[in-house]
Design brief:
- By secondary structure, the protein is an alpha/beta fold.
- The chain contains 16 helices and 13 strands.
- The protein has an eight-stranded mixed beta sheet with strand order 3-4-2-1-5-7-8-6, sandwiched between helices. Strands 10-9-11-12-13 form a five-stranded mixed beta sheet, with helices on both faces.
- A hairpin with a 2-residue loop joins strand 11 and strand 12.
- Helix 4 crosses helix 6 and helix 9 packs parallel to helix 11.
- The two termini are 40 Å apart.
Length: 401
Amino acid sequence: MINIVLILHTPRRASVVHIAVGVAGQKSLAAAMDRFAPTACPRLIVKVGSSLLVTAAGEVRRDWLAGLAADIAARVSGGQQVAVVSSGAIALGARRLGLAKGGRASLEDAQAAAATGQIALSQIWAELLGDQGLTAAQMLVTLNDLEDRRRYLNAAATLGRLLTLGTVPVINENDSVATEEIRFGDNDRLAARVAQAAGAQGVLLLSDVDGLYDRDPAQPGATLIPHVARIDAAIEAMAGGSSSGMGSGGMTSKVQAARIATRAGIALAIADGRVAHPLARFAETGRGTVFAATGSAPARKAWLGGRLSVRGTIHVDAGAVAALRDGRSLLPAGATGVEGRFVRGDLVAISGPAGIIASGLAEYDAADAARIAGKRSDEAGAILGHAPRAALVHRNHMVLA
């Protein structure tokens, strides 16, 4: 039964805990893996990449998908609620429409392929999950559905209700209406955002690679990183690209997804999806990369920290950087410049002398923020002609990078 999870107490697995993220002992790795067992992870989000679902010829890998459906059923039987973020609609639709370049030659082709492929993909999921006695539900979302607070809460409520009813939600980006400017662009980050909305405790990214390596896996001596305690510049530098050419993600998007998930208190793992029964294999062997949750931010700040549509940048001096790290709001006096076109309530990045240090919701439109940048509060009032707000970005609407 999958919920037993054989939690990696073997000498072989303990021997590979090492490397660039620091020496971690057998107990820490076992604890990280334990995060995906039903007892510690009542809700799990499983992301499936395009190259796993659809062959290069555009055919669905039904036998493999049937095995995954059986894995999901075993986890549900063990008490775990599971939602799936499923790629594959564009690849599947492109074959049915005879489109070149897998349906990605143009935005119009991708939208048409998504519309055609999504209905076929949902039918396949419903059929194979139904064979396991499970009811599938479909949710298509756009970036704005999860970036807008009210729509995010609506999506969260729907996901929560579907999971408590015992269904398996199958989620994808609504590529038939998404544009280049307002889309996730990859389902790795979408899976992390869905995990936040669903109140999940774990995300498992099934991929055409078996985890994060210290260099290109094709290079001699490349070593799998089994456990990442903290995402830093060294970890980000290890990220490469997608080897299949079918999807839109890659290791960079997976590390970005891990950053979104872990800062919200959600563990994330990358595991090999090319094997039969990938969830069972991951539970039995633990082979992959686990990113440990680094904290558990309040719900609103977790949502804010995962937002992707940054509208502008406020540059600040070193004194403001110190104040922000001390938990204070960003005052106009600490700003040195403003970039971008944003309005009050938009997400902006806050950049210090060494780079991005935070993001938050702007209290001013870009034009007014630029007018009072570097000014004291009494000066700001005179410039604007009305009593100014207390901050450019208030601490309650800000998250540190």
